[in-house]
Structures are given as structure tokens and as C-alpha cells.
Amino acid sequence: ELVGLMMKASSQPMPFSHNILPRVLSFYHHWKKIYGATFLVWFGPTVRVTISDPDLIREIFTTKSEFYEKNESPPLVKQLEGDGLLSLKGEKWAHHRRIISPTFHMENLKLLIPIMATSVVEMLEKWKAMAEKGEVEIEVSECFQTLTEDVITRTAFGSSYEDGKAVFRLQAQQMVLAADAFQKVFIPGYRFLPTRRNINCWKLEKEMKKSLVKLIDRRKENACGKEEKKGAKDLLGIMIGASNTTSNVSVTVDDIVEECKTFFFAGKHTTSNLLTWTTILLAMHPEWQVRAREELLSVCGARDVPTKDDLAKLKTLTMVVNESLRLYPPTIATIRRAKADVELGEYKIPCGTELLIPIVAVHHDQATWGSDASEFNPGRFSNGVSRAAQHPFAFIPFGLGVRTCIGQNLAILQTKLALAIMLRGFSFRLAPSYRHAPTVLMLLYPQYGAPILFQRVSTT
Ligand code: HEM
Questions:
Q1: pLDDT tens digits along 346-387
Q2: What pLDDT score does 42 carry?
Q3: Is pLDDT larger for residue 346 or for residue 15?
Q4: How many degrees, rounded to 5, is the angle at CA 229 between CA 228 and CA 231?
Q5: Where are the annotated coiled coils located (predicted)?
Q6: What SS3 state is found at 337?
Q7: What backbone phi and psi angles, to 5 degrees, belong to 241?
Q8: Which residues are annotated as a binding site for heme?
């Protein structure tokens, strides 16, 4: 059935509309029609139960979460994401989460707004120079990746920013090699063969670990000396501080290295995707762009860079960002494994079963979002997130429960900040070369990039 459906889908041209989900997920809708909201799918030799009923999602992530754990990532993903918060389990995960959480509290992030704004303004100054003589085409997805890399480096490494950036460049090279390897991922044992790609990968891995250990040692020395400044708490500082304190669960240098890898991986592409999709949607819907800009000007007045309080008042922008997260959630799915035999709604789930929660399909479900579920309509969020759908667990771009995204405040803050500064300086529309084709490569990407035409606007 799967092969038949794939052949049928691949022979059909993709229409230009918002309801194009990645192909595999469009199969999901088809299967849901036939089998209902809960059904089995085989991924090679692995069978997964697909769950999109918000009541069952609530059980898995909140009321019965103790019966489930995160599944093991495939080796290639693990290599990139590191052995940090994303994949840790049990007491070690809880300990790291407690230590790292304060870095991402709003009070701490607020201190980072001027630094984030510097990165945004630097990017936009370049665009302004390019748009000096009129409209200019910019491929925004690449620019936003550089921007989010900048921001996550500052958040994670703080005073060791430059060294951190160099380490992250190594990880970016590693990602290129991993993307190449993804095509061979199904050849058993391939990653152990001494191919040129694998040798390069091993070298990079070693080099990165060496650089990170050096960076940590240097930061430790500075912390003992006078160079360490008071200010926002960054991930590296906070982990080093924890490694110096005695506790039942110790934090080693290896742990810090792994967390640094995790945060680069988890923080960069997710947020740049959100920025990219929101820009595309605003370019497609000029009426919302105008509305968001008018609101921005009335809230911020002459302030070029909004404050934290200004950002909280930008209701239209918040609605647009939420609608973008709903239609194009950067993380399209998550997986849980039953740790014991457990009852889930009317089902008996045997220990070891993998449950797939297709976030993107939950967000497009007409049963909870109404008949316009596939349309861009930020107005549905006008009374807040909890009232937007017919079920409070139908909007889950950052996951749910204890393992919800630790970086969501940072992601939303930097997205709103960047969009606000951008809306003030530019009006924008899709370039004629833009082709709408959301595709999945771990996250949800615009397959052919995001070429946008920018024109300076005067707001004085
Ligand atoms: C977890 C999405 C930005 C760090 C998650 C999860 C989702 C998610 C869905 C839960 C995964 C699961 O339950 O299996 C997103 C999206 C983002 C974003 C859509 C941006 C739009 C960030 C940023 C950071 C970050 C900026 C770090 C700076 C993490 C970490 C976890 C996580 C460390 C694991 C938390 C834990 O298990 O304790 N994210 N994320 N994310 N995210 Fe994000």
C-alpha cells in the first residue's frame, strides 16, 4: 500500500498552497481517514504506533509520563546531537535539566536582548546596503542560520564567545558529512568502514572534543581569576559552576562537552527554520505584514530595538509566529517508548513499544482546528494559545510535559526580536523564483530555499 501511494503521490505535481505537508505526512492523513487516529506503521523493521488524538497525547506526556521514555536516536543523529539533555534519561537528565534551566529563564534571557539585537542589526545593515538602490533578493534561510548560530553561541558560551564560535564551525563541517551519510544510513555497518567520509568525521570529532576541552579549561582559569564578568548566565559558565559543586550526580568535563554539542544542534536550525517560515508567510500575506508593522510602530514609537516589555505587547506578531509554528513546526514529530506494559486510552501498549507523535499532523487536523486547518489564519490565536483549537493539547511545537523544549523562550524571543527589527526596516514579498515545497531533512525545510525580495521602508 505504501509503495502504491508513494508512486501515486510522486506522479502528482505539488499545488501552491499552505497545506502541502511533507509527502510521508500526507500519507498520514490518508491513513487516518481509513484507520482512525491511532494506527501502526512499519519503518523498516521497526513498528511504531502513531498517535494523534490529543487526549492520548496528554496521557503520554503528562498524566502517565512516568511510563514512557525517549527513544534512542540513530547513531548518525546521536553523533550530532551529543549525549546531552536531548537524549539523557533518568537521574542524570533531571540533574542537568535543573542546572541548565536558569540559563533559559526569561529574567536571564532579557539580559541577552541587546546582544541578540546587535546580531540582528548587523545582519540587517548588510541588507540595507544591498537595498540602497531598490528592491533586492535575499535568500533568507542562510542568513537566519548565521544569525541563530550567533545567538546560540553567545547564549551557550558567553564570555568565551569567539572560541565557542570556532568549535561550532567544526560541528557545522561535521553536519555536512553527516547529511551526506544519511543517504547511506540503511547500509548496516557502513559508518564503521574507513571510507574517506568516515575518516574525516572521526578526525573532526576528535578535533572538536580537543577544542572544547581546551575552551572549558581556559574558562575555568578565567572564572578563578578576574576576567569573568557578572551578567547573564550562560550554559558553559553554569555547567562549569555545577562541576565544581559536590552532588550525588557529578558533572564531568565530558558532560559539558556533550551539552555544548546538544545546544548547538538543538538551537540553531530549529529557530532559523521558524524565522524562515514566518518570513515566507508574511511575504505571502502582505495584509498581516502591514498589520504587524503598524502595531510595532504604535508600541515601540521611536525605539528601533524593542524592549522585553514591547515584545510582550506585540500581539499580532505573536499570533503570526504561533500560526507559523502550527503550519510549519520545525520539529515535525517526536517518539516515546513504553517502559512497561501500559494502558493508553482503550489500548494496551506492551513494554518496549515505540509511539510516534506526528506534531505536524496534529497541527493540521481538521477535527481540532476546523475546516480551515490548512490555511494561514493567525486570527485563530487572538484569544491565546489555549483557546486557538478545540483541544488544549493540539498545539505542541515545543513538545509537552517534563521534557518540553528548554530553549523555547529563547527561540520565541529571538524570532520576535528579529522579525520586529526587520519589519521596521523593510517590506518584503516572495521572489518569483520561490517554490513552495516543505520538505523534511530531520526538520521541516523549504526545499528550494527562501528567496525573498526586500525593499526599505521609511518609518519616520
Ligand atoms: C526539546 C522543538 C528551539 C533546546 C525540544 C522538543 C521539541 C523542540 C519538540 C521536545 C522533543 C521531545 O519531546 O522529544 C523546538 C523548536 C524550536 C526549538 C520548534 C524553535 C523554534 C530550541 C532552542 C534550544 C533548544 C533555541 C536551545 C538553545 C532543546 C533541548 C531539548 C529540546 C536541550 C531537550 C529538553 C529535554 O529533554 O530536557 N525542542 N526547539 N530548542 N530543545 Fe528545542
A1: 999 999 999 999 999 999 998 899 999 989 999 999 999 988
A2: 82
A3: 346
A4: 135
A5: none
A6: strand
A7: -60, -45
A8: 405
276 pocket-lining for ligand 1 (C-beta < 6 Å):
no
- Of 328, 217, 210, 337, the residue nearest 278 (C-alpha): 328
**Is 411's C-beta closer than 6 angstroms to any atom of ligand 1?**
yes
Is the CB of residue 22 below 6 angstroms from any atom belonging to ligand 1? no
- Cβ-based neighbours of 335, under 8 Å, separated by 6 or more: 48, 70, 71, 354, 355, 356, 357
The 8-class DSSP code of residue 400 comes to -
Sign of the torsion formed by the C-alpha atoms of 164, 122, 142 and 403: positive
* Centroid of ligand 1 to alpha carbon of 404 (angstroms): 7
Whose Cα sits closest to atom 13 in ligand 1?
399
Indicate the SS3 state at residue 252: coil
**Ordered alpha helix ranges (H), 331-407:** 359-363, 366-369
Where is average pLDDT lowest: 53-62, 95-104, 187-196, 261-270? 187-196
- Give 111-168 as a DSSP string: TTHHHHHHHHHHHHHHHHHHTTTS-EEEEHHHHHHHHHHHHHHHHHHGGGHHHHHHHH
- What is the rounded CA–CA span in Å between residue 159 and residue 238? 12
Q: What is the rounded CA–CA span in Å between residue 274 and residue 330? A: 6
Give ipTM to 2 decimals: 0.99
CA of 86, closest atom in ligand 1: 34
Tell me if 331 CB under 6 Å of ligand 1: yes
Q: Mean pLDDT lowest for which of 121-125, 135-139, 329-333, 443-447?
A: 443-447
Q: Taken in order 335, 148, 451, 316, is the CA torsion positive or negative?
A: positive
Candidate from 116, 322, 405 with most ligand 1 atoms within 8 A of CB, to mutate: 405
